[in-house]
Amino acid sequence: MEKRSPDWTDAMNLLTAHRQSRWTVKYAADRFFRFLCLGSVIFLGAVLGAIVLFVSETGFLVFRDVSLSEFFFSSHWDPEHGKYGAAVFIAGTLYLTLMTLLITTPISICVAVFIAEIAPPWLRQWLRTLLDLLVGIPSIVYGYLGATLLIPWIREHTGAPVGDGFLAAALVLSIMILPTITRITDDALCAVPNEWREANYALGGTTFQMIVRVVLPAAKSGIAAAVILGMARAIGETMAVVMVIGNVAQWGFDLVTPSSVLTSHIVMQILNVDFQSTTNHALYMMALLLLMISISLIMLIRRLRLKGGAS
Fold first, then answer.
1. pTM of the full predicted structure?
2. Which of 100, 192, 193, 238 gives 263 a disulfide partner, CB atoms 3.0 to 4.6 angstroms apart?
3. What percent of the chain has pLDDT over 70?
4. DSSP 78
């Protein structure tokens, strides 16, 4: 049997060692990437858990000095006299969110239907780009426009002494969340299979019938998710609301009376209180309410998306 030369054997050994080293490097890089991703997830979960734990622990301290019934059902907020009723802020938040959705939802759906089903391709692309730009405008810009243009207009046409209130806040928030709801609704409508549209036309249906009876029902989960996401942004919005709502702890359900909501009240009060004070604990409880509402809405959106994907 022919013997292999030492040079050939050495070359094979070097090649084998090189391949093994390459696989070792690849394996090490793969393990490093896995640990990096896992560490990032753990870090994110730890940060979220720490935030929830800290806000909860600090917020619940308020009930050492204030009863549950007073905090949630009293509208009397006067820290100087030990009164910490947050009902006016909680109700104001819900009222403002409801008003905003009543204004925004029908407009957003109509705009999304026009973009997805009626507009020509060139206009469709232009409108989508415009909506993306509107989403990126800072909230303080909307608030400043509301404070300098909208409030004087409301004061002039309603006779209100100041013009701040739920009407101005709802209109500003509606303009802010309209692009978000519209774009997500547009995506939901575009996800409906074209075969369903063609089947409608094959049966003699009109475009209106196709939109109302086929497209909108098929996209209802996506539309609901869009509305809920808009609701989450409306509830958590701060700066724009602070600039137009008036920031007064009173009922303002006549729309043009200065009032306040959870976010605006926290911003206006947080810099003027001691960290260990009952007032600060009450503000943290308000922050906890906002956090729980946001988490609940996000979980609801996830459930709707899973339901829509399954159907």
1. 0.84
2. 238
3. 90
4. E
